[in-house]
Specification:
Radius of gyration: 30 Å
Number of domains: 2
Order of helices and strands: HHHHHHHHHHHHHH
Number of helices: 14
Shape: rod-shaped
Low-confidence stretches: 255-264
Helix content: over 70%
Oligomer: single chain
Mean pLDDT: 79
Structural class: mainly alpha
Strand content: under 5%
Largest sheet: none
Number of strands: 0
């Protein structure tokens, strides 16, 4: 009977085993005959339930709404980029380019959440939110406003508009490089983010050639733009889907407080 109690106590936490065996044995010694065996079976059957209550368990909770929105935006952006490339024969060249330029807009919630969590004061997060999270919207607005402007005003608005369009790429490349330098976890994910952000900025920079220099870009610039575009098409969906799913899953596991050095 002592052996049965010894085996049954293995399910309990180590600090509670001796106390449970002592109390169970004292209870069994108070009865005789078949009742002793009946009580033994009863005690052993209740051990799993007792162990479930005694073992420490992390409190289950739902993912935070901000993490869910950020993750869903990233996943949608991950599907928008290859979707624009596949559906380009049906969308047309202009619509495909517009969709590719606006696809990083799916990072808006993720960039806003990251900027607010990392900023020491809310005011410091405003430039990151405006030019990083809503850079595509701001860039399209500046380009549309300066399209009918005369002379140098049109060139200045074009430069400002394309610079705002590159905001999400700059944010992505900078934060991915920071995460790699600090040797944070999931380095392959940050490597994809660095490639995607840099390629996006390179593609936007190539579009500035007719505005700054004038005329058609030379062959090396066209090759660099094409390489940047294909690198963005290959790396951005992987990073966006990976990061989006990770944000949703990890927000349900980690406490809501910001982790020191957290990149995303």
């Amino acid at each position: 009977m002592r052996f049965l109690l010894e085996v049954g106590s293995w399910l309990l936490p180590r600090s509670r085993r001796a106390r449970w065996r002592e109390e169970s044995l004292s209870l069994l010694l108070d009865v005789n005959g078949w009742r002793r065996w009946w009580y033994t079976v009863d005690l052993l059957v209740k051990v799993p339930m007792l162990a479930w209550h005694l073992h420490p368990r992390p409190a289950a909770r739902w993912p935070s709404p901000a993490a869910v929105l950020a993750g869903m935006g990233l996943v949608l952006a991950a599907f928008a980029v290859p979707g624009a490339y596949v559906l380009s024969p049906f969308l047309g060249e202009q619509n495909t380019e517009a969709l590719l330029l606006l696809a990083p807009f799916g990072l808006a919630v993720a960039i806003t959440r990251h900027a607010v969590r990392r900023a020491r004061r809310p005011v410091l997060a405003v430039p990151v939110v405006v030019f990083g999270a809503f850079g595509p919207l701001v860039g399209v607005g500046i380009l549309a406003a300066g399209a009918a402007a005369p002379g140098w005003i049109q060139s200045a608005t074009a430069i400002a508009g394309y610079a705002a369009l590159a905001g999400p790429g700059v944010w992505l490349a900078a934060n991915s490089w920071r995460a790699i330098r600090h040797r944070q976890r999931q380095r392959p994910m940050h490597a994809f983010g660095l490639i995607a952000g840099s390629a996006f900025v390179l593609t936007i920079a190539g579009l500035l050639w007719p505005v700054l220099i004038g005329g058609s870009p030379p062959l090396p610039v066209l090759v660099a733009m094409a390489m940047g575009l294909y690198a963005f098409l290959a790396a951005f969906p992987v990073w966006a889907a990976w990061t989006g799913v990770s944000q949703i899953i990890h927000s349900a596991r980690r406490p809501r407080e910001r982790t020191a050095g957290q990149a995303f």
